[in-house]
Design goal:
single chain, 12 helices, globular, amino-acid transport, membrane, cell membrane, transport, BCAA_transport_permease
Length: about 290
């Protein structure tokens, strides 16, 4: 029984880290992988989703619907920002970085001024499960299932729907797609909105587990960028293996030496990948698979 409990504890720690990396980085990976936009406001979309989820849940809305509302709100705001700001900065990466950084500062300070330095959160639902005398959060197990469903859903969306075909065609050959009658501006707007909605979904899913403060998005930023950089440009090839490898590193170091060493391990991993595999895991997997 002790061996079973230890094995489940290891699986739980790995699954928790894997779920966090996948859910936190999905929106950033879509916007960067599909549009080549480095979105420094990613954390603020996460914060938006979390705040909307908390407010909606406290008004009595079921948590699942509150999370969905948070994701939709973040997606709509993302589409508005794409229309007003990002659309004018395509193919200007440095300008887009500065613009999204400015949006990030405005959003954080705006929420701080309007809503204050903290906000009442919502409790973690579903209680706990006991395995071998140890208790584990049942909600964390749900988050692991959500991460797997998210990866499958994104794959089906981009490879088995008309929107996915149009989005990939627009990103790879925008001039050709435009010549064939595709409304590329609309596709860009929808793709950016999808990335923002995924960030809002991350905020909504983790809202019951976190303290609600305007800077809460910063908690997700490091892991998100590390996962995207290690995974490479093709999110469908690189995101899952990158999250799995980083989850092993983080879970092992955190269990043995504490959370600080877990973070250090992630940063060392991304430095090694940039040095040895500049295109990330996706480029390496594609190269070795030919």
């Amino acid at each position: 029984m002790e061996l079973l409990a230890a094995a489940f504890a290891m699986f739980y720690q790995f699954g928790d880290a894997f779920a966090f990396l996948v859910i936190a980085s999905a929106g950033l990976a879509v916007i960067f992988g599909m549009m080549r936009i480095i979105n420094l406001a990613h954390g603020e979309f996460i914060m938006c989703g979390a705040y909307v989820t908390a407010v909606a849940a406290r008004t009595g809305l079921p948590l699942a619907l509150a999370i969905l509302l948070g994701a939709i709100t973040a997606g709509l705001i993302g589409m508005l920002i794409e229309r007003l700001v990002i659309r004018h900065l395509y193919h200007r990466p440095l300008d887009s970085i500065i613009a999204t950084w400015g949006i990030s500062l405005i959003a954080t300070q705006g929420v701080l001024i309007v809503l204050g330095s903290t906000m009442a959160g919502i409790g973690t639902p579903l209680g706990s499960v006991e395995v071998g005398g140890q208790t584990f959060s049942a909600y964390r197990l749900v988050l692991m299932a959500c991460a797997g469903a998210l990866l499958i859903g994104l794959y089906l969306l981009f490879y088995h729907t008309r929107f996915g075909v149009l989005a990939r065609a627009t990103i790879q050959k925008p001039e050709t797609a435009r010549a064939l009658g595709i409304d590329t501006r609309r596709v860009y707007g929808l793709t950016f909105g999808l990335g923002a909605a995924l960030a809002g979904l991350a905020g909504g899913l983790y809202a019951p587990t976190m303290t609600m403060v305007p800077t809460m998005g910063a908690t997700f930023i490091v892991e998100s960028f590390v996962t995207v950089v290690v995974g490479g440009a093709d999110i469908f090839v690189g995101a899952a293996p990158a999250a799995a490898i980083l989850a092993v590193i983080k879970a092992t170091l955190t269990a043995g030496y504490g959370q600080l060493f877990g973070q250090i391990g992630l940063l060392v991993a991304v430095i090694v990948v940039i040095r040895l595999l500049p295109g990330g895991l996706s480029a390496w997997i594609k190269k070795t698979g030919r």
